[in-house]
Amino acid sequence: MATQQGIAPGGGVALPPTPEQLQNAFDNGIWYALSLWPALHVAVQNSWGGPDSSEKRDWFAGAVSDLFGGRQDTDAEDLEAFMLQIMQDEFDCNVEDETEGEVARTILVLRKGLLEGSLAEFENLERRWKNRGMMKADVQVVDAGDGEVGDDEDIDEMDEDEDRAPHGVQQAPREPRERPQPEVDDDGFTKVVGKKR
């Protein structure tokens, strides 16, 4: 429950968040940040990770949290590389629009705020997720074998399972595969390569 200027509901002084509340906010905040990432949303919506794509998204959030638990010095570059590898390995999706940088920065800002005892960035992410409505994904999707499939896709509805709360680790990662080189079209857009159907 959000408090304003340290005043708790009912007029008392708000207690600082407990370590458990901060960790829970970090885990859920990562899930919100990843769920708001258009590239991952398109991959889950189109089941590029197979029939359990939404569970893989949940596992993805847990894996990012575990990355910070194991390596406290994780920076934006490490996080971006980790996220791109998971997108490739789990969703057969080569993200080349550099949006992983924004998602990584969001997660690092969330982490910094929580380490300082502030839930403000978590509450902002939660509000953005709840108010997401129709996501406009400025993503070009390319079928690795047949060329362009979709362009500037409107995603009219979120998955039904997008409305459930974040979950922890549910699946182990697969072995990494070799990544194809980025493709840039005449307009300078980097293409997202999707799984061939």
From TrEMBL:
InterPro entries (UniProt xref): Pre-rRNA_process_TSR2
Pfam families in UniProt: WGG (PF10273)
Keyword annotations from UniProtKB, A to Z: rRNA processing
Span list, region Disordered: 141-197
GO biological process, alphabetically ordered: rRNA processing
rRNA processing recorded as keyword: yes
Residue ranges, compositional bias (Acidic residues): 145-163
Domain of life: Eukaryota
Similarity comment text for this entry: Belongs to the TSR2 family.
Protein name, as recorded: Pre-rRNA-processing protein TSR2
Higher taxonomy: Eukaryota, Fungi, Dikarya, Ascomycota, Pezizomycotina
